[in-house]
Specification:
Length: 346
């Protein structure tokens, strides 16, 4: 009796194990796992078995493994297309940004499996080839391969990106650059544009880390894609000086204009300088004055001084020494050395 009971239990265990291995339950739901291999914008590509049989609209849950047997759900996606050995998915409810290497669990009902029609006589699954996906790599790794369950040496995620950014700022102002980098690395990988820009800054000037202009450019670009005006401006400076990129004044002009339009004062000043001196564009003192004023309104000392010069010498505006002195005085109060020197000489 005991032997028969034991045999029955063992049989149940074996059957259960077979079903688990097959990723199929009694209720008709099929669950297949895969790995995220590439990302472009909000579209992810998942490498998985039986990709050609997975219906469009199937649910995709993404997980980030934090330790052996433990994971954190990153959000829900749905299958938008299929290819050979892969499926494409679009977001439905994003908790965090997708990343290469994440585990994807794809679930669907076997009752919704693709229908074989007479136009497919060899009973092969019809693949979706209606879209081509020129995928690009996601944000590059800052270091080498990290321990399992870790993201750049920090458990993921312990707190929201905003809190990592706040801590990073605190360490930055304390000039504890190494600790600032650890905080910024975490929130940058979580998609925080400000942290991406700060990492670009650290790599650009070698603060707390080895100087690397290519990495600086990459982080500036990641941040700029989210319309961070400071990152866009910093990219423009790199193109002006040929740092990590080929010198390109036309590109710099484009980036300064975009950042200036977003209200970034340093970009407004630099954009004005291009027209004031005719760098990469035809000289136009009127355009220069317009943007000098915008930067001056945000108390950029050198911009205030430049507006004073325009009024003194009639660049882009009639000469007006009274206004010129007003701007020189304001620039001097803001600490501009040229304005202080000019006023002291009068």
């Amino acid at each position: 009796m005991i032997t028969r009971y034991k045999l029955k239990i063992e049989t149940i265990i074996i059957i259960t194990a077979v079903l688990v291995m097959a990723n199929q339950s009694f209720c008709g739901q099929i669950s297949i796992t895969g790995k995220v291999t590439k990302i472009e914008n909000n579209t992810i590509i998942i490498e998985t078995i039986k990709a050609e049989t997975i219906p469009k609209g199937s649910r995709v849950d993404l997980f980030f493994e934090i330790s052996e047997g433990n994971s954190i759900e990153i959000g829900q996606w749905k299958v938008s297309g299929r290819g050979k050995g892969v499926v494409y998915a679009m977001p439905v409810d994003m908790i965090g940004p997708p990343q290469k290497g994440m585990t994807a669990k794809i679930s669907y009902s076997d009752k919704k499996a693709p229908v074989i029609t007479s136009s497919n006589p060899r009973n092969k699954t019809i693949q979706d080839t209606s879209r081509k996906n020129p995928y690009v790599e996601p944000v590059p790794e800052i270091r080498g391969k990290e321990p399992k369950g870790q993201l750049l040496g920090i458990p993921f995620p312990e707190k929201p990106a905003k809190e990592y950014a706040t801590e990073g700022d605190r360490y930055y102002y304390e000039k504890n650059y190494k600790m600032a980098i650890k905080e910024y690395e975490q929130c940058a990988r979580m998609g925080h544009s400000g942290c991406q820009r700060m990492l670009g800054y650290f790599y650009n000037y070698g603060l707390g880390i080895e100087k690397n202009l290519n990495k600086a450019r990459e982080f500036y670009e990641d941040s700029a894609r989210q319309n961070n005006p400071s990152a866009i401006y910093n990219l423009g400076v790199m193109y002006v000086n040929g740092q990590g990129v080929k010198k390109d004044m036309a590109k710099a002009h484009e980036l300064f204009l975009k950042s200036a339009t977003l209200g970034y004062p340093e970009a407004q000043f630099n954009f004005a300088v291009l027209y004031y001196n005719g760098i990469g564009v035809s000289k136009d003192k009127s355009i220069a004055l317009k943007w000098f004023k915008k930067a001056a309104d945000q108390d950029v000392p050198k911009a205030v001084y430049a507006v004073g010069q325009c009024h003194e010498f009639g660049f882009g505006t009639p000469k007006n020494m009274v206004k010129a002195k007003e701007y020189y005085k304001k620039a001097a109060e803001l600490g501009d050395k040229d304005a202080i020197k000019k006023l002291s000489a009068q």
